[in-house]
């Protein structure tokens, strides 16, 4: 099973490890989509910003997109290719640097657009507006739905009345979260119904992120068709900016069982933490896969895995196994390259996991290690 081999590494846990071969497989899929559809694909750094692999990523896709100045600076410094940015607000003491280093600058409101338009035009950069097509296709992930009632993200069509669009080159929407291309098709119908009359005068449109392109059941052929049809109809460039699709199933988090306690069930306490090392387990919420672990009732031996923090809810999940778990055993959590390293924290003084990469030739490189100073120096 993929990931099983990481149990045998003589490396102190916890650590994240990126499988470069799996990353490359994803990049080849994304390159195929670009080649066959004529679109541009950008890495959304909010999901994955392990810049040591940016040189590899830049060989296959068009560049990066950022959610603010710091991510924009990282993309500018470390990735060859285009550098796009969307932020709900651009601060006055940051906008000049954003303009200097970014190619596309996307605004979330007409207030922001009108405030900064002249500077961006003077800087020769492309301007976009994020729009809200008011079409929700998500089920159960309301926290990630930008089309929900009361959303602060994206301009609704009624706000376009009597607003001059001088200088606008493109429109951007981002409505999906870990979804297939059928949901993009639904969204495009709503997007065209509300904003289609504006598209013939533009240079580009950005379909945002949330496209799970490298998932095994993703309908790539439909995606390619949607992009080609859209480009042909409106004669403009199409951008996509997935984050998860780039590093999906390419990373693991390895931890060690340090104690087993009983309270109505066996509870294994590990040196990895849902709250600190994989916050989406609690925020999303979801139950990550563990190598060798099944659903409760599927196998004979059942364990709950929890972290070593004082948070009662620091629970990774409940799993069943073919044989008992023992103190000292290692566990390998799957799909931990995305929304994990970028979100981790040192709550309770929890050590941050080291970051490793298994290269295509099988060699293991320790990319980054952390210590007490990383915790201490955050707040003083």
Question: Tags for this entry?
Answer:
380 residues; alpha/beta; Lyase, Ornithine Decarboxylase, Chain A, domain 1; TIM Barrel; 8-stranded mixed beta sheet; 8-stranded parallel barrel; 11 helices; 16 strands; 22% strand; globular
CATH topology of the largest domain: TIM Barrel
Mean pLDDT: 97
CA-to-CA gap between the ends?
44 Å
Radius of gyration: 22 Å
Helix count, DSSP H or I runs of 4 or more residues: 11
Which structural class do the helices and strands define? Answer: alpha/beta
Shape by Cα distribution: globular
CATH superfamily membership of the largest domain: Alanine racemase
Kindly state the number of beta strands.
16
Domain unit count = 2
For the record, the CATH architecture of the largest domain stands as Alpha-Beta Barrel
How would a textbook summarize the main sheet?
A: 8 strands, mixed
Order of helices and strands: EHEHEHEHEHEEHEHEHEEHHEEEEEH
What is the CATH class name of the largest domain? Alpha Beta
Percent strand: 15-25%
Low-confidence stretches: none
The share of residues in helices is 25-40%
Descriptive account of the structure:
Helix content is 27%, strand content 22%. By secondary structure, the chain is an alpha/beta fold. It folds into two domains: 142 residues, Lyase, Ornithine Decarboxylase, Chain A, domain 1 (Beta Barrel); 210 residues, Alanine racemase (TIM Barrel). Strands 1, 10, 11, 12, 13, 14, 15 and 16 form an eight-stranded mixed β-sheet that branches. An eight-stranded parallel beta barrel has the order 2-3-4-5-6-7-8-9, surrounded by five helices. The chain starts with 14 loop residues before the first strand and ends with a helix. The mean pLDDT is 97.
